[in-house]
Amino acid sequence: xxxxxxxxxxxxxxxxxxxxxAHEIRNPLSIIATSAETIASKKLxxxxxxxxxxxxxxxxxxxxxxxxxxxxxPTQKTIQHSRTDIGEAVSRTFKFISQKxxxxxxxxxxxxxxxxxxxxxNREAFIQVCLNLSLNAIEVLPENGTLKAVIKADRDTVDVxxxxxGPGIPENIIPRIFEPFFTTKPEGTGLGLAISKRIINxxxxxxxxxxxxxxxxxxxxLPGAED
Length: 227
Prior knowledge:
Layout: H1 2-24, H2 26-41, H3 46-71, E1 83-85, H4 86-103, E2 107-112, E3 118-120, H5 123-140, E4 146-153, E5 157-164, H6 192-202, E6 206-212, E7 215-223
Parallel strand pairs: 2-4
Antiparallel strand pairs: 1-3, 4-5, 5-7, 6-7
Helix pairs in contact: 1-3, 2-3, 2-4, 4-5, 5-6
């Protein structure tokens, strides 16, 4: 009986890892494909080609890191967090999604109201969270929609607000959006927000969502890491 239970638990862990790998490599692959298509289909300057090629290389390396981290889940209880420049990470995220935003004519706006802001979180994992939220927003935004990221910080915490002026999230769904495998998308896995919540919680932070007449707001709160 104990061996059977152990085997069931191992299968459950493997299914979880497989689902997470499938979901989390989707975003980098999407950015790589978009960059490659842009290089192939447009007349670009040498500088623009170099920028897109760098994006492909960086996303390939990030995808390799994601796979390594996800495959280590059975033996690694938590992600290793360190002091991260939150402004740089959000700026990098917007750089990665700029081509997709341009294709949908979505406007990107980013501001940091407190100068340099540092928090204790794994940089790659935090970019992963920002990509999940940003790409979800771009999917539902209409043409000429707006996606904003605003960073606010005080002595102890760093808040990141990711907002859009899309259709919003129905009130009855908001309590469930962070549940694993809950999705309203026909081809969704229901893992993006669940993974994002786990990453933020493991860093000692919190993530909340709200829907207003103006759209959707996600607030990420992280412990500050000033010198």
